[in-house]
Amino acid sequence: MKVAAEILKNTWERFGAAVEVKIFEAGALNQNVIRPREYEALLFGEVVSRPADLYSFWHSSQRLDPGLNVALYTNAKVDKLLEKEDYVAAAEEIIAETPAIFLYSPDFLYLLPKTVNGVVFNLINTPADRFLNINHWFIKTEKIWPIFR
């Protein structure tokens, strides 16, 4: 994240913006910056649940602490769409207005021995998600117990 912050700083400075990057420990960031909403721009990573909970991140009622609308986004139309659970239309409206820029999503790389079969990775939001279908994994073996011969 620090590298991303420096890239953004350099980019904005080329356009004439004065930028100071401040890096916080997670606890201090939450207590001193996010909760009181003390920032002009925030480079922040979120682990979003499946399916994404758009209400908590984009409804105007969630702008103040302890809400998760850290973009401080307010749009009455989006609020109504979220209340009706019309997430597709709400997402389209949010994307059209660009209240936040989604920079990247980290890739997770997992190596397994060739002997492990049945592994299918779907959407992985957290490292633990790689085990969501572990009950389908198996290793073929040639050994048969004598009792089954």
What does this structure look like?
There is one protein chain. The protein has helices at residues 2-14, 26-34, 54-58, 76-83, 87-97; strands at residues 116-117, 138-139. It has a two-stranded antiparallel sheet with strand order 1-2. By secondary structure, it is mainly α. Helix 4 (76-83) packs antiparallel against helix 5. It is built from five helices and two strands, in the order αααααββ. The model has no long low-confidence stretch (mean pLDDT 89). The longest helix is centred in the first third of the chain and has 13 residues, at 2-14.
Please sum up the structure shown.
With 149 residues, this protein is mainly alpha-helical. The chain has helices at residues 2-14, 26-34, 54-58, 76-83, 87-97, and strands spanning 116-117, 138-139.
Which key phrases capture this entry?
mainly alpha, 149 residues, 5 helices, elongated, two-stranded antiparallel sheet
Give the SSE map.
Layout: H1 2-14, H2 26-34, H3 54-58, H4 76-83, H5 87-97, E1 116-117, E2 138-139
Antiparallel strand pairs: 1-2
Q: Mean pLDDT, nearest integer?
A: 89
Uncertain regions: pLDDT < 50 for 5+ in a row? none
Looking at how many chains there are and whether they match, the oligomeric state comes to single chain
Q: Would you list the SSEs in sequence order as H and E?
A: HHHHHEE
Q: What would you call the shape?
A: elongated
Rg for CA atoms: 22 Å
Number of helices: 5
